Structures are given as structure tokens and as C-alpha cells.
Amino acid sequence: MTSPLNTPASDGRWTPRLWGTLLVLCAAMFLDALDVSMVGVALPSIGSELGLSTSTLQWIVSGYILGYGGLLLLGGRTADLLGRRQVFLVALGVFALASLLGGLVDSGPLLIASRFVKGLSAAFTAPAGLSIITTTFAEGPLRNRALSIYTTCAATGFSMGLVLSGLLTEASWRLTMLLPAPVAVLALVAGLKLLPRSEREKNHNGYDVPGAILGTASMLLLVFTVVQAPEVGWASARTLLSFLAVAVLLTVFVRVERRSAGPLIRLGVLRSGPQIRAQLGALTLFGSYVGFQFLVTIYMQSLLGWSALHTALAFLPAGVIVALSATKMGAIVDRFGTQRLIVAGFALMITGYALFLRVSLDPSYATLILPSMVLIGGAFALVFPSLNIQATNGVDDHEQGMVSGLLNTSVQVGGAIFLAVVTAVVTAGTPENPSPQAVLDAYRPGLIVVTGIALAGLLATLPGLRTRRPSRSVVVAKSPQQQEALAEPVPARD
Q: Are the C-beta atoms of residues 425 and 228 closer than 8 Å to each other?
């Protein structure tokens, strides 16, 4: 529900309170993305001080991914049912507390537990925050502008996390854990005053407890299995049985959702072509980039001998391009439509990945690395806001949290799955006691897989170019009762 205090003026200008609302939501999303990237550089220092093995260190990253990716579906629907403002603020408070504890503990298991709790809280703030935007800003130019700023903050947070972690780790790895805490507290205090009060979904048909249990269990098991597969083996009995269990859980989940009066995910939403393309785009966009960043980070630090800060600065141009595009993307989306920008962005990303295949053990940053970073930054600036706009356009307010949770799940699951695949490809091609050149040669198949993932994203989103852009907003995949109330059919919108 849109608060009068948070309604744009008749001429489209935003009030200070409306800007404040967006700033609070952007701060939370910035922290979520920052936390994902910032911990990576600090892992060697953490392992040294706490005496943790490599496999244990992996769970400092994987614990966050497990909580985040496994509970997003539940987080999105909870925001719809219990109130977006309430869910967002409670989860943000938990995030701040977990950040504080993570910087103070002296035990590996406790640190992993704090990371899981942070991921869990982010699984509630992310869809709640996105749905607050989509229900506060009217669909069209106003929402497109807000979403372009919001999603740019996420991409900027991810990029800045690399730089900040390089700086903070020089002093202490604990600072990388503690930094989000005061920022989250400030956002929480501001949110108590600025966020519009939202009504809980009225006339819903109870809580889909079986769906919530099955959906959460299947996502948790899927993420856990993918994260562990490179270590225990993709063809091991444990991995295969886990994937079989995931398939069974998802099958039962779909059957339950079809029969539920108030499902965790209304499956009719996925009958929309633009919605499916948005989910596949999110899956491949982040899946390819996470794999790329993983390989390039190791390449720069292990083979080129660059410092953590040097490596972070190498990625910075991409983040700068995304940040500078924040206030412009809304107008660009209004002019060209989401589908054209998604396709153009994937084309840029594929080109950037392909160019990186030329790297050697003695590369020129300006001619070999920088062009890829610029192209990838431009791709993110075009694709990420467009995917969020396309996924949330035409969806009723009471289902915005559900769709937001679904989109964020695609992002996290795509990152987890494709990172594991890229890691497996590189590991399989690396000989024992390899020379630096042999290691680099083993990286190239992984980079080819990354490029192939982005190409799959392009192919999955290309059919949307055939869809004629409508002149007005519509609601996609309505419930049967709502469809009966329509006077005439309306074409789906990209």
C-alpha cells in the first residue's frame, strides 16, 4: 500500500521522504551484496588466525549462500502475508546483530553460524525491500527509475566489497565482518521513520505450511548439494542421492502448490513468457559472472602475484560503470524496453568473456583485461535493472514479495550451481604439480564454460524480441478469478 507521504507529486517529482525510503532500501541491498563479495579476500587471514582448514573456510562463504538461497521463497511470501515493512525491519535488525557477532567470535563453527544467520536475514530483506519499491512506486517510468537505482546499488555493493575487503583486511579481517553492523543499524533507525506502513495480504487462504516446508527444504538441499559436489564428487553416491531427493521434494512441492488455496508460489505466474525469461536471465547472468570472478581472482593472485587490493582495483571499472548508470537506466528502459536491453547486455557480456580468453602470464591490463571489465560493467548496467523491472511489471501488489523472492532465488541458485560447475571443469583439467602455464591452460575451459552460460542466457531471452511492446502496463498471469473479471485479453508485457 502506498502511503500519501510516499506518493510522488503530480508532476512526477519525488518528495524527500520518498527519496529517504529508497535510500533505506538501497542501503540494505548494498549490504547484502557487499557481504557476499567482501568476505572472500579475508578468508586466508581468517584461516590463519582461527586455525581453520580450507574445507572449513569454504563454509564461511557457503553458509551465507545456503541461508540466503535456501530461504528466499519463504522470505518473499512471508513479506506478502505478514507485512513488507515489518518483515524488512525485523530481518534488518537480525542482520545487524549477526554482523556484530561474526566480528567478535573466536570459533570457526560460530563464525559459520553467524554467516548462515546473515544469509537467512538477507533472504527476508531482499524480497521485502524489492516488493516495497514495486508497491510504493507506480508501474512505469517512476518504478523503472527507482528499480534502476536500487539494482545498481546491489551491483555497486558487490564491486565495492572487493575493494573494501582489500583495505580492511590489511588491518584486521574482523573489520570486514563488523562493517555492515553500524550501517544496518542506521538503515534500521531510518526505516522505522521513513518506510511506508504496509497492510498484510487480505483475504488470503491461510498459510501454506506444507509448501513452505517443502520449498525451503528443497532449496536448502539443492544449494547444499551443489556447494558440496566439487568436494565429494559429482558422481558420488552422496551427490546423486541428494539430487534425487531434491527432485522428489520439488515434485511433491509442485503437487502441493497446485492444490493449495494459498500457495507459497502461485505457479500460474510462471505461465508468463516475460516472467520465465526474467528468471532464466537472472540465473545465467549471475551464474556466469560468479564463475568468471572466481577464476579471474585466482588467476590474478595466484598466477600474476597481484595483491588482494590490486585485484580488487582491477575489477573496479566494471563497478564504476554500473554506479554511474544508476540515475540514467530508468529513462533508457522507458525508451527501449526491458527485452532489448537484456539482449544487448548479454551480447556485451559474451564479448567481454570471450576477450578474456586472450590473457597470458604477462598480460597488459589496458589492452587485455580492461576491455573485458568495461564490457561486463556495461552488460550489468543494462541487464540487472531490466530483469528486475521485467519480473515485477504487471504483478499484483499482493504477489510482489513472491515474485521478488523467486527472482532472487534464481540469482542465488544460478550463482551456486554454475560456480560449482566451473570449479569442477577447472579441477578436472589441472594436472598434478602443474606449471603456471598448465594452470592457465586449465582455466581456459572454465572461461569457455562461463561464456557458454552467458550465451545460454542470450538464447533464452532472445524470443522476447518478437513480442510487440504494449503502450500500457498489464498484469501477467492473473489467478482464474481475476481472469474472469477482465473485459478483454491483454498481451503480455516485456
A: no
